[in-house]
Structure prediction request, 274 residues.
Amino acid sequence: MIKIEHSVFALPFALASAFLAAGGLPEWRILGLVVIAMIAARSAAMAFNRFLDSEIDGQNPRTAMRSIPAGRLSRSFALGFTLVCLALFVFICARLNPLALVCSPLVILVLLGYSATKRFTRYSHFVLGLALGLAPVGAWVAVTGQLHWDPVLLGLAVAGWTAGFDMIYACQDIEFDREVGLHSIPARIGVKKTLLLSRSLHLAMICLLVYLGLHWSFHPVYWVGMTIVGLCIIYEHYLVWDGDLSKVDMAFFTMNGAISLIFGAATMTAAVLA
Prediction:
């Protein structure tokens, strides 16, 4: 039901933010708690999504073999697993600092609320972006116990990147979404306009990351990483150029996983070498 390896999308950004907040390698205890909190939060969000969308997933040929519609797991199991993960998330936040605990209900609201948004708004992609964009903000709070504009800007970059690649992925379900009355940007404006919007969001992401690199006067290793990230973004859009969705899985999973890992590695290295 949940692939832990998909945590790679947001976790490197959270770790990069933790390194920046600490000015290098964070305390090992804090780093471990951040990783556990990230995995618990992401697992809760995915399990609740599978719980809430089980009927819809069963109607969609692309998702009919997911665990609940295929009968491998029950909806009650998914809901129970969600509650356990949320309890673990709140417990970890309480162990971190008071601000992390105070912010945890808002994070949970976003994480769980996303799953319902496709039923009433085509902007659900941006809510998903917000959910992942909270990762670097949360990691900063975990390390410092304070909020700051820098992780917010990093979170905006992650939000735009996530919304952009989620739109690409949603292009697969245009006909199904229209048929059952679900909302999405691709279902509203079509594939080609969606891909153009996705490119614009990814360009905005790159601009924000460049600004942060200049603002922090990062070590040159950051710019090496950013160059590779930019090339990955270009290749991701090349794979779906002109609406060809035959390689959408590679564009969505492989390229975005590489983007996150490369950015995280470059930023953490730059923070240590600063």
